Amino acid sequence: MSFCCCPFPLFYAPYKRRVPQPIPPSPLLNNGMQVQLIGTGNTTVLNNANVIFNTILTNLSPNIVYNNVTGVFTVLKAGVYIIDWWVNADGAEEETTIYFVIETSTGTSIGASSPSPVTTIQLKGEALVYLPENATFTLVNRTGAPVNYGTSQIQADLRVVKVNTI
Question: In the prediction, which pLDDT does 28 show?
Fold first, then answer.
């Protein structure tokens, strides 16, 4: 009986060490901003008024500008943007639903509403929009009445990201 001198069968392929490949850059890097409204005693957002965020958590893009006095976002570079947001709501006078809308200077409106008769809710919405250079957008209360913010420390949040295209 003959034996091979190597300890492995002839069909064995030697182990090759895998070298990790670098992760390609994300198309979302350096293209976004996140803001929040942190509870400071402002208890309501009036009907037809913009949500005013008082804290910029992340600003990774010189092409997205936020005015914390007016609540207006300006995009300096044309492109497709993802906007997602939530508002912690706790009642709206006699209204049985709440309704918030992303409104752009180009006339686009994308909203979200609570189911009736729910006005105490963390309402969430998303928008995917094309915005030309120097376009603006806001998050607006269109409920028909002032909406009370909830009692949590963070009362609203919004994130906007420019999507790079290939």
Answer: 46
